Description:
mainly alpha, flat
Amino acid sequence: MSPYMLLMFAMTFLTGVSQVLLKKSANKTYEKWIEEYLNWQVILAYGIFFGVLLVNTYAYTKVDMKYGAVIDTFSYVFVMLFSWLLLREKFTKRKVIGNLIIMVGVLVYTLP
């Protein structure tokens, strides 16, 4: 595994973190509508998204596109795990089945 693939995997991890930040912000109530969009969690989450976009754009020039798409699918797994750990959301049968389908798809796609 190349260092650029590991970098892309780390960016997928950060994408999951930013998704959870947005979810935590959405679960709060605010006095003014502008505070829903201009708070530290939303600004940080979109800053992370922007940084991930820049890093992934560079990494895609160094990695075969086939592997980049596979690595990006792990964001669904990270979001499910972070939602369980940080937001105390429960694993539902549909979430688990959906993530298993994603993982099977990754295996089928990457097999020679």
